[in-house]
Amino acid sequence: MFDKLAWIRLPRNVVVGHGVIDETAAAIDEVHLGGTPLIVTSPTPRRIAGERVAEQFEASVTVTVETASFAAVERVIEAARAEEVDFLVGVGGGKAIDIAKMASDELGMGFVSVPTAASHDGIVSGRGSVPEGDTRHSVAAEPPLAVVADTEIIADAPWRLTTAGCADIISNYTAVRDWELAHRLKNVEYSEYAGALSQMTAEMLVGNADSIKPGLEESAWIVVKALVSSGVAMSIAGSSRPASGAEHLISHQLDRIAPGAALHGHQVGVASVVTEYLHSGSAGRWRNVRDALADIGAPTTADELGITAEDFVEAMTTAHEIRDRYTILGDGVSREAAVEAATVTGVI
Ligand SMILES: NC(=O)C1=CN([C@@H]2O[C@H](COP(=O)(O)OP(=O)(O)OC[C@H]3O[C@@H](n4cnc5c(N)ncnc54)[C@H](O)[C@@H]3O)[C@@H](O)[C@H]2O)C=CC1
Ligand SMILES: O=C(CO)COP(=O)(O)O
Ligand SMILES: [Zn+2]
């Protein structure tokens, strides 16, 4: 019997442009979501965008979250049930959006994604990324029915959030290499479409690096398009594999070892310099990854991340334990190999 199944869930409305925050209710109405929204946001995005979304509805409820955790997801679920809302809107960075999409999944309610920063490629994906104890889960979550990305708001956000989003995209190079490796060595299911889309997204972003500059709304436009494209690759794959390999495992480990030190995108970018070195050696493409990061002004060293050499090496040597995801880290790199890779690449 033919037993393959592809169930690809994509957003129906993706609205990107200047001032489109004020079209949020219209974009929601078009996908036939009605009633009272629960707006899931964090303090700054609430002020910048959450209130502008809320005022487009007769009634709404807002919950403010601070961290990506299962406890925060539970709190949102309880609020949604207590207030008898009809659908959820995530307004903010990656954490608020992840919490909203995971709560929506549990509640069986529609989800709408309103990113206020181009800092991560989870704005479209049907995945949530949450730490728990010693592990980091990549869980299936409700993909957005609509995405509303206001380039005016996103261009006004601190520039480092945009360079983090670029670095999250640049890390697709190594994520795809890890995925191909896992396919060859461990027979992990691989989608050529998703792999090619993810890699092409990184290539296009790097090709447009000259147009990605602070203060240009055009930059927000280019980066949001890339983040959407990368999220679609994850939806096609049905996993975060096209956009998350060993560099993400190292970053997730850094979140545990040095919490709050740097943005997710910046961490995965620096980590991808060393994982590219592990893939292709000293003559390989790690310089291209480093130069692409440097061109858009993202960190290329542990020091620029605010992370000590010791912590970075510890993250490299323990990252394989965080999740059952085969990558170039195999069953663990030795301390000597980690120090060598991080030193040759100038990361430490
Ligand atoms: N589910 C998925 O497929 C993916 C999930 N992620 C997750 O997303 C998270 C990283 O997302 P980030 O956005 O980097 O972190 P974040 O959500 O913590 O946002 C970073 C900071 O920027 C603030 N912020 C957002 N918009 C702003 C604006 N316009 N002006 C001023 N401040 C603003 C936020 O309030 C927060 O303090 C991680 O937890 C990561 O694992 C990342 C990529 C993909
Ligand atoms: O950050 C991601 C893609 O950029 C996905 O992270 P996870 O693999 O933890 O879901
Ligand atoms: Zn990421």
What's the short story on this structure?
Keywords: Cytoplasm, Lipid biosynthesis, Lipid metabolism, Metal-binding, NAD, NADP, Oxidoreductase, Phospholipid biosynthesis, Phospholipid metabolism, Zinc. The protein has 348 residues and is α/β, with parallel strands linked by helices.
Describe this structure in words.
By secondary structure, the protein is of the alpha/beta class. It has 15 helices and eight strands. The chain has helices at residues 24-30, 43-54, 70-82, 94-107, 151-156, 159-170, 172-186, 192-207, 217-237, 246-257, 264-280, 286-296, 302-305, 309-318, 335-344; strands spanning 13-17, 37-41, 61-64, 87-92, 110-115, 127-132, 135-140, 146-150. The strands form two sheets. A six-stranded parallel β-sheet has the order 1-8-5-4-2-3, sandwiched between helices. Helix 3 (70-82) packs across helix 4 (94-107), helix 6 packs parallel to helix 11 (264-280) and helix 7 packs across helix 11. The longest helix is centred in the middle third of the chain and has 21 residues, at 217-237. The mean pLDDT is 96. It holds the Pfam family Fe-ADH_2. Its cofactor is Zn(2+). Pathway: Membrane lipid metabolism; glycerophospholipid metabolism. Zn(2+) binds at residues 168, 248, 264.
Biggest sheet architecture? 6 strands, parallel
Mean pLDDT: 96
* DSSP E strands, number: 8
How large is the count of helical segments?
15
Shape: globular
- Pick out the low-confidence regions: none
Ligands bound, unique: 1,4-dihydronicotinamide adenine dinucleotide, 1,3-dihydroxyacetonephosphate, zinc ion
- How far from one another are the termini? 53 Å
Specify the helix fraction band. 40-55%
Strand content: 5-15%
**What's the SSE pattern?**
EHEHEHEHEEEEHHHHHHHHHHH
| Rg, Cα atoms, Å | 19 Å
Structural class: alpha/beta
Strand line-up of the largest beta sheet = 1-8-5-4-2-3
